[in-house]
Write a structure and sequence with these properties.
Layout: H1 10-21, H2 25-38, E1 43-49, E2 55-60, H3 67-72, H4 100-106, E3 109-115, E4 122-128, E5 131-138, E6 143-149, H5 156-160, H6 165-182, E7 187-192, E8 195-200, H7 205-213, E9 221-227, E10 232-238, E11 250-254, E12 257-259, H8 262-271, E13 284-289, E14 295-296, E15 307-308, H9 311-328, E16 361-362, E17 379-380, E18 411-412, E19 420-421, H10 425-429, E20 439-441, E21 445-450, E22 453-458, H11 459-477, E23 483-492, H12 495-510, E24 514-519, E25 522-528, H13 537-551, H14 558-570, H15 580-590, E26 606-610, H16 611-618
């Protein structure tokens, strides 16, 4: 039987490896920018076109490479960072595997220009699909420039699975900012389609954070710092009152490397105990300095996950550090013992004695008696005169003399609800018409009368369906309805959020928003949909942008996706009290919809109980 196992060609093996390291254009930007930092550059410029699919250019003024090193850098597992296995536990650099450049060259057209300061000329290399097309000497500046063109040109399936340009650009900005946040001593510039997104000058850490988030973020930051024998912690956290409904501004860095860790996030949130509004998330920029031998960063191809030698110790130190910072800067509630008491109690005179308080009661008082029936009862002046009423006075088999007669309609007073009159079922049995007004149950469900029994409507799901179909009609017929604001709103967004928002401005206009970009992440809002309150504009847009960043569903079904997001954000929520008119309006509008029985997310909007089903419940 012939042998069937063969070694893969290097070009195929590199394409397979590239699938782990290079998942999208943002992965290329991350690897190249990190290499530039490791090369000792203090000025890095990133240029992208068409969300990185056409061009990614990264230029630095680092130490550059020799001709031999430039050629060797594209070989798999060729690295200058480690020589033996023990070096993995003493890493301080960002890259070390030697896979990035080989993976990029396998799936793109790559051009490299590099020169060391001591060399008169540099090296120019052109590679396409792992194959070297050209290598020659060239005159160039000190440092390194990478040009990555036509990404995934030979892997069309991977290219087809990329998200929209806005979503991919947002991911690139994310990776760019994560590196920039760890190296404020380096100047960074990001240019997207000939438009400058970031120009970050050399600065301190706080200034770098403010430069990325916007000028208004300075007052929101609280410094954090702690040093122990095991770990050093520094950075900034956001004040509780500025917590947002989304998790966009949350960063952990281990030895200047961005990581994701739900366990440490839990420790930080616990430190904010009872300080955050429900469903809000604080901003934080936390930097850990841990001995390399106490962590393992070689557990994930993108190096965003780290394994700790002692997670519980770091958890405890982080939580106590955050709580202390919140206390030092008067964020947590405190008791001021220096404040003078406002209640003054005068001391007793020598001839006075302490007396027990007195209370006035009516003996035999019957709360169920008719008005005026208790007028002649004797009053007792002290607690000692209080007597336990006779239980027989509260028997209801036969009304007491003087008691008010029972009304035809029985009144029930529900908690947090106004007193309403509910018709007796006897009226229905006698053939008289019953009241068909809808009733709200637990501020979440609408109960209505139908010929065959009872209908229960989920007010939130129903309103989502109503708004969704309304927005779809508006976008289809280009008939947007907008409520003009007397004073325009000025909203600030981070760079990646601004990039996403610019990409959907025409669609938001069709939904009733009148928004214009003022530059540098600032937007002016002149009009909003009629259903939206002015103080909810920022929250609503934040939620939409957060979901767009996470899901990126912009290329197909774009309008439907935005309509669904807006309908979800602007619908009435469970727990909101509705008037009788509002409930009737939801019922009427719901049954006028094309698909009234399910929300845009697929949840049922209503259920019914027939008279037969109800009868079975009572005849078991």
């Amino acid at each position: 039987m012939p042998d069937i196992i063969n070694l893969l060609p290097d070009s195929v093996a590199n394409q397979i490896a590239a699938g782990e390291v290079i998942q999208r254009p943002a992965s290329v930007v991350k690897e190249l920018v990190e290499n530039a930092v490791d090369a000792g550059a203090d000025e890095i410029i990133v240029v992208i076109k068409d969300a990185g699919k056409t061009l990614i250019q990264v230029t630095d003024n680092g130490k550059g490479m020799s001709t031999t090193d430039a050629r060797m850098s594209f070989e798999r597992h060729a690295t200058s960072k480690i020589n033996q296995a023990s070096d993995l536990f003493a890493l301080r650099t960002k890259g070390f595997r030697g896979e990035a450049l080989a993976s990029i060259a396998a799936i793109a057209h790559v051009e490299l220009k590099t020169r060391q300061e001591s060399d008169a000329v540099g090296t120019f290399i052109v590679i396409e699909g792992s194959e070297v097309k050209k290598q020659e000497a060239v005159a160039c500046a000190k440092g390194t420039s990478f040009f990555v063109k036509n990404l995934f040109y030979n892997v069309p399936a991977r290219r087809n699975f990329l998200k929209s340009d806005s979503a991919e650009t947002s991911a690139i900005i994310d990776e760019f900012e994560r590196v920039a946040l760890t190296h404020p001593e380096v100047s960074f510039t990001l240019i997207n389609n000939n438009s400058e997104v970031h120009r970050l000058e050399k600065s301190g850490l706080r200034q770098r954070i403010v430069a990325i988030l916007g000028k208004g973020s300075n007052e929101k930051l609280v410094p954090v710092e702690e040093a122990t024998d095991y770990v050093k912690i520094k950075g900034f956290i956001g004040k509780p009152e500025f917590a947002r409904k989304t998790k966009g501004e949350q960063f952990f860095f281990i030895n200047n490397r961005f990581i994701k860790n739900a366990y440490l996030n839990h420790a930080l949130i616990r430190a904010y105990d009872q300080l955050l509004a429900p469903d809000t998330h604080p901003a934080y920029f936390i930097y850990f300095d841990i001995p390399p031998h106490a962590i393992d960063i070689n557990i994930h191809p993108t190096k965003t996950e780290v394994k700790f030698e002692d997670e519980k110790t770091i958890y405890a130190i982080l939580r106590s550090t955050i709580k202390r910072s919140l206390g030092i800067y008067n964020i947590t509630p405190t008791i001021d013992f220096d404040t003078e008491a406002t209640v003054q109690i005068n001391p007793l005179r020598s001839d006075e004695s302490v007396k027990a308080p007195s209370i006035r009661l009516k003996e035999g008082y019957n709360p169920f008696a008719a008005p005026g029936a208790n007028a002649d009862l004797k009053r007792h002046n002290t607690i000692d005169d209080w007597q336990i009423p006779d239980p027989s006075a509260f028997k209801t088999d036969h009304p007491a003399k003087g008691a008010a007669p029972l009304p035809n309609q029985t009144a029930f007073l529900l908690p947090d609800e106004p007193q309403e009159t509910i018709e007796s079922s006897l009226d229905e049995l006698s053939g008289e018409p019953i009241k068909k007004t809808p009733y709200q149950l637990h501020k979440s469900y609408i109960l209505g009368h139908i010929k065959t029994g009872l209908i229960i409507i989920d007010q939130q799901s129903a309103h989502e369906r109503i708004l969704y179909e309304k927005y779809i009609r508006q976008m289809a017929h280009h008939q947007s309805y907008s409520q003009q604001l007397l004073f325009p709103l000025v909203l600030n967004f981070s760079s990646n959020e601004a990039e996403l928002l610019n990409g959907i401005l025409p669609d938001l206009h069709a939904l009733g928003f009148e928004i214009e970009s003022l530059g540098k992440g600032t937007f002016g809002v002149n009009g909003i949909p009629p259903e939206l309150k002015e103080n909810e504009v920022q929250i609503s847009l934040d939620k939409m942008l957060n979901e767009l960043r996470q899901q990126g569903e912009l290329r197909t079904g774009k309008k439907e996706f935005l309509a669904r997001l807006l309908a979800r954000n602007m619908s009435v929520k469970a727990g909101e009290k509705l008037t009788e008119e509002e409930m009737q309006h939801i019922i009427d509008e719901l049954f006028a919809c094309e698909l009234p029985y399910h929300s845009p997310g697929g949840k049922p909007t209503l259920i019914t109980f027939t008279l037969e089903e109800l009868a079975k419940r009572f005849r078991k």
